[in-house]
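User: Need the bound-state model for adenosine-5'-triphosphate:
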Amino acid sequence: MKRILRIGIMGGTFDPIHRGHVGVAKQVKERFQLDQVLFIPTGDPHFKQGMTSASPQDRLVMTQLAIRDIDGFIASDMEVCREGVTYSVDTLEELSRLHPNDSFFFILASDAATQLHRWYRVERLAQLCDFIVVSRPGYPFDEALIHNLGLVPGLRYVLLDGLSYDVSSTGLREALAAGESVEDWLDPAVAEYIRSHGLYVGHESDGRS
Ligand code: ATP
Ligand code: MG
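Assistant: Bound-state model below.
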């Protein structure tokens, strides 16, 4: 009989993908003995409609480049290729249909987790996967987070503290636009892709975090 796979889901705008995203996924994969981690760049993210600065296609390619040599890491185009607004629940419905016997673990940091109760059809989403909530500088595991997670009926989640990647894509876009070096936070192939395609050059900050 086929073994049940434990599959991590790393969703995000990845605009651009940075060492925080990849580092979190590596640590979670090891800690929770995941067989795979699917990186799924959003197409048209519900909460960030029209606000990304690189195209979905560029964000997908950068994601592919950043994880290309990492065992068990896979980039998925399923949200980029989907028409209309991207909802995680549609993604998990599709994945559950494709892999009915496998288990899914949605990985997200405390900044996103505190908004989880507002996600579209989150009650259904919570039936389709477990959640692994990781720490992120500036977004502590506080009472508000625990309260908000408690607003989602049937939510199964674990908290993983101690991860501390002090980086955001917003900060990187701003630094790149200002001509500053951010090589430490980017995979070299991603940095080269950004440079050769002229991404993030001279963009105004859109103020999101
Ligand atoms: P932006 O500043 O554009 O929002 P971001 O750095 O927050 O970018 P996202 O693509 O929004 O990156 O995040 C995708 C997922 O990765 C989210 O669950 C987010 O919480 C998590 N994440 C992003 N950066 C970090 C980090 N430095 N440490 C831990 N988790 C992170
Ligand atoms: Mg973010």
